[in-house]
Write a structure and sequence with these properties.
- The complex is a heterodimer of chains A (293) and B (309).
- An eight-stranded mixed β-sheet of chain A has the order 3-2-4-1-5-6-7-8, sandwiched between helices.
- In chain A, strand 6, helix 10 and strand 7 form a beta-alpha-beta unit.
- The longest helix of chain A has 18 residues.
- Chain A has eleven helices and eight strands.
- Chain A is 49% helix and 14% strand.
- With 293 residues, chain A is α/β, with parallel strands linked by helices.
- The longest helix of chain B is centred in the N-terminal third of the chain and has 18 residues.
- Chain B has an eight-stranded mixed β-sheet with strand order 3-2-4-1-5-6-7-8, sandwiched between helices.
- In chain B, strand 7 and strand 8 form a beta hairpin.
- Classes of the chains: A alpha/beta (293), B alpha/beta (309).
- The structure holds guanosine-5'-triphosphate (GTP) (2 copies) and magnesium ion (MG) (2 copies).
- The site of one magnesium ion has 6 residues of chain B, from helix 5.
Chain lengths: 293, 309
């Protein structure tokens, strides 16, 4: 249920004109910028398009539009492997670590993901490694109860790494298929908290390999999303991105740069607050929404 | 990651430094770089356009300064304009003539409303007020409990008659909280509401119903400093949907440039009143327009550059 923005409509209108003029190029640039694609990537794409238009002798805005769509798709790379690593080799459960800055939707995504895995017939254990924020473990507990997954928790203000460790141990003992560890929100600029996150991962690895580190990015995030991804990538080597809150008006264009520069694919999208509002990332749907279709 | 505005302007400066007077071309060249810097700071495009147009106009009519070279003059105009827009009429919290003063918080999911409720309560308590926190987010899992913990940490009372997690009517809780506050001699009531999207008409109508039930003295729009271009759409939607009197910018302890400050201020005309700068109750401050102007445009460097020129 994505609403069409006025800008998107404006673009469609322009592109249904029969001639290419500066307005068309401006509008394309504006569409990309207002989707948080960023100034430099936008410029690069527009320059690229202009060259292509010359080479191909494209005449009409709708041809340009098709070229733009194709270009965006290329950037997003539909060929990337976006499968979530939810089965581990051998006997042990797959281990997923969910990370990101404050309030992006980590706990909600953890709950939704558990729901979807359980729907596929897997057994899931949740680890409440946010021992810091008020009622964070209870929030995850509510999700666990809702979707039918046991939640391993520790004492308030306790050591998040040991909760994560216990959750994985419980998953192994229970012969669960998947363990998902929810962590506290932390800004990437806080070195102490980032070190703590690194430790959470290292401590888990004493027990089992971490198969997936999901960075949860909020679609409303602007250019700062790039920094978030870089720093989280350095500290815990993220393997996938969950782009949340795409049910709003924000387009989440920052993930284009993030994916290109870090090579980490967007794997999931969040489309609401309910248990079923999680979907695999679909490049075509994403591009069409970005262009305002 | 980005080239800073001062980096960008260094090249523009070097070609302008010799000239005595601002030509249209000088202004255009400087404004082009400023436009990019603003966009990279996440200032929303329509706001960037208005802002740059306004700066150009002022720069054209500017008195020729003896002390500053042309580019410096433009930068100074930009700096002054930014501070003026960001700070226009900073004002204090409005207290009701007959207590209780009612403050309602509204914003997108995860913006920092519940945390802010705790911060505001503590801040007011330190000024000898007796605040009451009201749990009107009956939707997000364990929001009621989160607010109760914040109240405990802040050493203030909480009114949470409903368990939440989908149970209870937030409008009714809001209405009853005012009587409760009167009976218990609370002079400030702070209403925490559920996060909602600008396009969620049903939830936006609920926010308006809460507002109508309590006639708040202040509706504060809480917005994450990391928000990008969507700031305009969302701020406008909350303005139309519930209306607000002031803005609180959160998560300013990160390294986001915070262009949202300019976007929201410019679009709605509402002042930014507070800055939230961390997860702890004491990480809270009045908003400083000059610091924010410097942050958005990396103005610290610019001003050094002007001094060196
Ligand atoms: N509309 C919408 N809201 C979402 C989505 N995902 C999460 N939310 C909401 O965003 C808010 C924050 O979500 P959480 O899951 O608590 O975020 P978090 O990252 O765990 O937050 P911290 O642990 O405090 O850092 C809640 O109100 C969620 O209901 C989504 O895809 N769409
Ligand atoms: N670093 C930092 N984190 C903050 C700040 N303000 C809030 N947070 C964190 O951001 C996350 C979301 O804060 P909440 O207060 O739960 O946000 P909310 O708007 O009430 O969220 P919903 O009720 O789900 O819509 C939590 O992890 C908070 O600790 C801030 O100024 N800086
Ligand atoms: Mg959480
Ligand atoms: Mg809240």
């Amino acid at each position: 249920a994505r609403s069409q923005t006025t800008l998107g409509r404006g673009l469609l209108e322009l592109l249904s004109r029969d001639r290419l003029d500066d307005d068309v190029w401006d509008e394309i640039e504006e569409t990309l910028i207002t989707a948080d694609v960023g100034v430099a990537p936008t410029r690069a794409m527009v320059e690229d398009l202009k060259t292509k238009v010359k080479v191909l002798g494209s005449r009409t805005p709708s041809e340009v539009r098709a070229l733009l769509r194709a270009e965006l798709l290329t950037q997003i790379d539909p060929g990337l492997d976006r499968t979530l690593h939810t089965s581990a080799p051998g006997e042990r459960p797959a281990v997923l670590l969910v990370v990101g800055v404050n309030g992006t939707g980590k706990t909600t995504t953890t709950g939704k993901l558990a729901r979807s895995l359980i729907g596929d017939g897997k057994s899931v254990v949740l680890g409440a490694a946010d021992t810091f924020r008020a009622a964070a473990a209870d929030q995850l507990q509510t999700w666990g109860d809702r979707v039918g997954a046991p939640v391993v928790r520790g004492p308030e203000a306790g050591d998040p790494a040991s909760v994560a460790f216990d959750a994985v141990a419980r998953g192994i003992a229970d012969k669960a298929d998947v363990v998902i560890v929810d962590t506290a929100g932390r800004l990437h600029t806080k070195t102490g908290l980032m070190d703590e996150l690194g430790k959470v991962k290292r401590v888990i690895e004493k027990k089992a390999q971490v198969d997936e580190v999901l960075l949860v990015l909020d679609a409303t995030t602007g250019q700062n999303g790039m920094r978030q991804a870089q720093v989280f990538g350095e500290v815990v080597n993220i393997t996938g991105i969950a782009l949340t809150k795409l049910d709003g008006t924000a387009k989440g264009g920052i993930v284009i740069s993030v994916q290109r520069e870090l090579g980490v694919p967007v794997k999931l999208v969040g489309l609401g607050e309910g248990p079923d509002d999680l979907a695999p990332f679909d490049p075509e749907v994403f591009v069409d929404a970005l262009l305002g279709d | 990651m980005f080239e800073t505005l001062s980096d960008r302007l260094t090249s523009v400066f070097s070609s302008l430094r010799s000239k005595g007077r601002l030509s249209d071309a000088d202004i255009d060249a400087t404004c082009r770089e400023i436009r990019i810097a603003l966009l990279e700071a996440d200032v929303a495009l329509p706001v960037v356009k208005d802002f740059v147009a306004h700066v150009k106009e002022r720069a054209r009519g500017a008195e020729v300064s003896q002390a500053l070279n042309p580019a410096q003059q433009v930068v100074k105009i930009v700096n002054d304009e930014l501070i003026e827009i960001l700070g226009g009429e900073t004002r204090r919290l409005r207290l009701a003539k007959t207590p209780p003063t009612v403050i309602m918080l509204a914003g997108l999911q995860g913006a920092g409303k519940t945390t802010l409720a705790g911060k505001l309560a503590r801040w007011l308590r330190d000024q000898n007020h007796v605040p009451l926190l009201v749990a009107c987010d009956l939707q997000r899992p364990n929001a009621v409990q989160q607010l109760s913990v914040m109240a405990e940490r802040a050493g203030v009372a909480v009114y949470a008659p409903e368990p939440g997690n989908g149970v209870g009517d937030p409008v009714q809780v809001a209405r009853q909280s005012i009587d409760h506050a009167r009976r218990q001699q609370h002079d400030v009531v702070i209403i925490d509401t559920a996060g909602r999207l600008g396009i969620d008409q049903e939830l936006m109508a609920q926010a308006a119903d809460i507002r109508d039930a309590v006639s708040p003295d202040e509706v504060l729009f809480v917005v994450d400093a990391m928000i990008g271009q969507d700031a305009v759409t969302t701020a406008q939607a909350f303005m139309d949907g519930v209306g607000f009197d002031g803005v609180v910018l959160t998560k300013l302890d990160g390294d986001a440039r915070g262009g949202a400050a300019l976007s929201v201020r410019h679009i709605t005309g509402r002042p930014i009143m507070f800055a939230s700068t961390g997860e702890k109750l004491e990480d809270f401050d009045a908003f400083h327009p000059d610091r924010m102007a410097g942050r958005i445009l990396d103005m610290g460097d610019i001003l050094t550059l002007i001094e060196q020129a």
